[in-house]
Design a protein that fits this description.
Pfam families: Sulfotransfer_1, WSC. Belongs to the WSCD family. Residues 142-234, 245-342 form the WSC domain. The structure is a single chain. This protein is an alpha+beta fold and 577 residues long. Among the domains are: 144-232; 247-317 and 326-334, no CATH class; 356-531 and 542-564, Rossmann fold (3-Layer(aba) Sandwich). It is built from 18 helices and 17 strands. It has helices at 2-45, 69-74, 79-89, 107-119, 171-180, 237-243, 258-261, 273-282, 366-377, 388-392, 417-421, 433-446, 454-457, 461-483, 492-497, 499-509, 516-524, 545-564; strands spanning 144-150, 161-164, 185-189, 193-197, 213-214, 217-221, 227-232, 247-253, 264-267, 287-291, 294-298, 329-334, 356-360, 382-383, 410-412, 425-430, 487-491. The strands form four sheets. A five-stranded antiparallel beta sheet has the order 1-7-3-4-2. Strands 8-12-10-11-9 form a five-stranded antiparallel beta sheet. A five-stranded parallel beta sheet has the order 14-15-13-16-17, sandwiched between helices. The longest helix has 44 residues, at 2-45. The chain is globular. The protein starts with a helix and ends in a 13-residue tail after the last helix.
Amino acid sequence: MAKAFFRLQKFLRRTQFLLFFLTAAYLMAGSLLLLQRTHLVIQQGSRGTSANQALPVPDRMAGAGIVDSRTLQNARLGPRLLGGMDALQEPALDQQHSPRWLVSRNSELRQLRRRWFHRFISNQEPIQTAGFKAMMHTAEHKGTYMGCFSDDSRERTLKGAVFYDLRKMTVSHCQEACAERAYTYAGLAYGAECYCGNKLPLTVSKPEECNSECKGEKGSVCGGVNRLSVYKVEELRAGARQRKNVIYRGCFRAPENLTDIFPASLIQPNLTVEMCSEFCSKKEFPLAVIRGQECYCGYPTGRFSLHDGADGLLCGRMHNASSALGGKYCLVYQTPVQDTRCTDRKFLTTKSKVFVALSSFPGAGNTWARHLIEHATGYYTGSYYFDGALYNKGFKGEKDHWRSRRTICVKTHESGKTEIEMFDSAILLIRNPYKSLMAEFNRKYAGHLGYATDRTWKSKEWPEFVNSYASWWASHVLDWLKYGKRLLVIHYEDLKQSLIPKLKEMVEFLNMTVTEDRLLCVENNRDGNFKRSGAKQKDFEPFTQEMKDLINRYILTVDEALRGRNFTGLPREYVPR
């Protein structure tokens, strides 16, 4: 019996060893196979790169596989990765070039693909000349391609209007934007920037120097580094004119000497609004002024600010100048041309000594205030966050680190002692909480320019949103009043109603000096690119009585706190609702 037990024990020991050996061998074989597959994935994704050329790996992304979220958001795809990106995302790959295991839905392998993709993201480089011929103007466009031209940022020829879209820029989008504003030429640069004007640039460049692919249109050229791909869009203007009409600004007393104030003029029998507007648009002026048979073009200035309008009856409220009495009054129209006296912006050349916050509750108009400050001062504003939509539309400070001190001020929605005391001073922007809550709810569910659907407003998300965000509106103001070192309180409603005086306060608070003409230019471009078109009226009241009672209590608390700090209290329209 003992002998039989000994044999059984010996057998079990051998079996245990054998099982251990087989398990270890299986794991090693699986690891080797996994490594081999990873190597093949990299080779498959990098077919466009030569065997001896290393793919760019940013230092901050390599290593332990940990990638900073701001880094990933800031990154732009290199041209060689554009082709491989589709292959990584599509569930079904080309069977002719890919082994069967590559289409496996194994979660671990998909994770390896994602890690490989994020690791090799890098800033986009200009498209190389070798690939230039393959993508030369493959898409069909309505305008006539005029060629590749040199672009000097200090002395731009196409300076009538400027647009950015660092994600969706296409040749057609740029052409239509310029045509809507009655420009003759559209020029694209850096794959994402659009410039409009009525004169061709002087210096012609080699065709291959325009080598940047359009961000929103593969296979199309959108200029290059300091190079413009220029199109003539005159063919589009007839249709575009119907879409974007000339705006009537009102009747004004005519200055004593119009020729001293307005740099361009035209005398034309039977002058019409269309004649004068087209003449001023070609001259790239935003204002068309009509007095009798005289047409004048120019900008709003200190001598003609458009702030003191006359009674419309004095001009007969007619869209021709024949009714203006005795030449004392004139009709003023806004042409489709953009006022470009305040569109140039840059980063601070030296680090700011004072770290200034532009603080507000979400939905209180922070983006609009940034637009006004940037155009008034000529310097970019920064952000505590990174919003790709804002960066794509020209807020280049979004991509700059918020503590770089290269921006004139930094957007933040943060509150709390630690976050507030990081700043030396702050502009505190306050808006009616009813309007702020609705604006932020729209942004959350429909983006910067959209509106949430009626179904979303009537869902459970809206009451939950109000219950949590209404207290945040109050605590945000209270915290900044308590911990802020040096504050300038601006009410959104006051800024909207008295833009020039309030903007002057903000600029002076930032220790900047600006000319009156530049402020008038900002007023002429006051809306920017992030204004919802009109107020979408709802056929129901989104706020219940319970919500109103809650919000009104917070309004009274904030109003009392402002007055306790010797600031102006909240505007009367805030309460009661």
